[in-house]
Amino acid sequence: MKINLFRNRIWNLKSERGFTLTELIMIVTVTGILSSTLVIPFTTGIKQATRPEIYATATYLAQEKIEELRSSGYTTTSGILGTTSVNVTKKGRVYTEQVVTEYVSHSAGSFSAEASSTEYIRATITVSNTTIPDDIVLWTILAKDFYDPDPV
What we know:
This protein has one domain (19-143). Helix content is 47%, strand content 30%. The chain has 2 helices and 5 strands; from the N terminus they run ααβββββ. The protein has helices spanning 2-15, 21-78; strands at 82-90, 93-107, 110-113, 120-128, 136-143.
């Protein structure tokens, strides 16, 4: 009787072996397919979520440069006419800041570039980043300083 009881326990243990190799392969395959379909939208969502932050930072950099040029005034800015380009790093991202300053004349409601000194300088700031498809472009017009407390 003891031998039969012992044999029944061994038989019960052998019948509860778990999953077969084929079943495990099928489970891993199905899980891999389902997880791959979820990973792509998840990573795309993360990339798109950072885009507004990048646009905001680029706009902030352009506005900061415009305020810097406005505070410098016409006289100081006329000494640095031309194109300058600088790389700025904010929050681990590299932005390219390009500043174009040129003399312009005003007629018929629009400004056009001039080669010689005029009463106006147009400063165009372009900030770009490799992540965003569009550059941020801001510009301002600086009028000639009629009162310059610090003549050069």
